[in-house]
Write a structure and sequence with these properties.
- The chain is mainly beta and 337 residues long.
- The protein folds into two domains: 184 residues, D-amino Acid Aminotransferase, Chain A, domain 1 (2-Layer Sandwich), CATH 3.30.470; 127 residues, Beta Barrel (OB fold (Dihydrolipoamide Acetyltransferase, E2P)), CATH 2.40.50.140.
- Helix content is 12%, strand content 35%.
- The protein has four helices and 19 strands.
- The strands form four sheets. Strands 3, 4, 5, 6, 7 and 8 form a six-stranded mixed β-sheet that branches.
- A hairpin with a 5-residue loop joins strand 17 and strand 18.
- The longest helix is centred in the middle third of the chain and has 11 residues.
Length: 337
């Protein structure tokens, strides 16, 4: 174990997590490692002066919502740490469950034992004793992380495999997991950047979309029939790409409606006009993000077979851009194709 020293440099207030680009197919390479894509909330954990501070991917503090993570202090062998990872809820089979995570996030603080337990999956070390190690290769950062972090039941170091990305991806699919993240062994950590040195492969096409409004047919019992979805183009304008009218539970419909209702505005947030059949349209401030599964885009840039998955309170609308969404028609420009 490395000799421990007190940190002499204060940690930054926040660090934007490095992001992975979405690709369609898994691959094999001796220069890459492959990790499970955890289905939870991306989190940077800061440990300084014997205290833990948790930061979401959009730089919001969420320490008070996960008080059990204070135990991270007891699992480290140094101070002045910034650890990149994911907060997850594991189901009874040990699989990450986004539904349990959403329950935990929505219910916030509660009495011990009344909330779904949370685990922190650590996969990268960004600062050690107050000094940045982001300029060191991933393999070295992984080695340092293993030296300073002692795993427990709720603090877990993400394991990886080398070379055999295709087989690993197939194994995750067989288990019904979300996918894998491939990382170059020599990659440096670039805060807030989405680079080709980190790649993610998912089981289905999936994206995050800005909610710009909702529609309904006029029946009083209906909160809404579908959400109107958009993505930002290279000029920052919100482009309407389709609507999602399925995938919601009854409770989710009511909760989404109650969240959207205060944000109703008169002016259309989209640069183009949605083509909808429903009688009533309500525009909303483009402030909320949801995750949607879909089959593909049409040639004119409309979602086919969209299904609502969940709200994404951890994502900023500015992150929802055409250049990152899978399957966007190359003829329309701006997407990955």
């Amino acid at each position: 174990m490395t000799e421990l020293k007190a940190n002499e440099t204060s940690l930054p207030t926040s660090i934007k997590p490095m992001l992975a680009r979405l690709v369609r197919e898994p691959f094999d390479s001796p220069d890459w490692i492959y990790e499970l894509k955890w289905d939870g909330f991306r989190t940077v954990a800061f440990v300084e002066d014997g205290k833990v501070r948790l930061q979401s991917r959009n730089a919001k503090t969420m320490t008070s919502q996960f008080p059990e993570m204070e135990g991270l202090v007891k699992q480290v062998e140094a101070d002045g740490l910034a650890i990149d990872g994911e907060l997850v809820c594991l189901d009874e089979d040990g699989r990450p469950s986004i539904k349990l995570m959403q329950q935990r996030f929505q219910r916030g603080q509660g009495k011990p034992g009344t909330l779904p337990p949370v685990s922190f999956i650590a996969f990268d070390l960004l600062h050690l004793r107050g000094e940045s190690v982001m300029g060191q290769p991933l393999q070295e950062r992984k080695r340092l992380l293993a030296e300073v972090l002692n795993p427990s039941d709720s603090i877990i170091i993400s394991q990886s495999v080398e070379t055999d990305g295709k087989a690993f991806f197939q194994a995750t699919c067989d288990l019904g997991l979300e996918g894998v993240v491939a990382k170059q062994k020599a990659s440096l950590y670039l805060p807030g950047k989405r680079t080709w040195s980190w790649l993610k492969v998912k089981r289905v096409r999936e994206g995050e979309f800005v909610i710009g409004g909702y529609v309904f047919g006029g029946q009083r019992k209906d909160y809404f029939s579908s959400l109107l979805l958009g993505l930002h183009d290279e000029d920052g304008k919100l482009v309407y790409v389709g609507s999602a009218g399925s995938g919601y539970s009854e409770d989710e419909v009511r909760g989404i409606y109650e969240t959207l209702e205060p944000s109703i505005v008169e002016e259309r947030p989209f640069v183009n006009t949605p083509e909808v059949q429903e009688k009533y349209i309500h525009w909303c401030k483009p402030e909320l993000v949801c995750q949607v599964e879909y089959g593909e885009f049409t040639v004119d840039g409309r979602l086919r077979y969209p299904v609502y998955v969940r709200m994404r309170p951890d994502k900023s609308p500015d992150e929802c851009v055409l250049s990152d969404v899978p399957g966007w028609p190359r003829s329309l420009g701006g997407g990955e194709g």
